[in-house]
Amino acid sequence: METPDEMRAKVADKAATDADFRARLVSDPKAAIGAELGVTLPAGLTVKVHEEDAATAHLVLPPDSKLGESDLQAVSGGFFGGSMGEAKTVLNW
Fold this sequence. Notes:
Blueprint: H1 4-17, H2 19-27, H3 29-37, H4 69-76, H5 84-90
Helix pairs in contact: 1-2, 2-3
């Protein structure tokens, strides 16, 4: 199985070289990522794609530390039978 870094790199590399994939990734990230990686992402997981340019930088913050693992699990509906923490590890975009 690919590591999370390898999966992110695979998606980013394809988006950098394939305009159609990039457009699908922006318009429907879960479907594009799922198809590219051969996985089904859970319904409760939201994936947001942000395009950077010379005038825009993005900072990704970790989940609010006030939420516990069970809170995240309830919101996420699970991930491949695992925890939301695992989902965050796999899809740490």
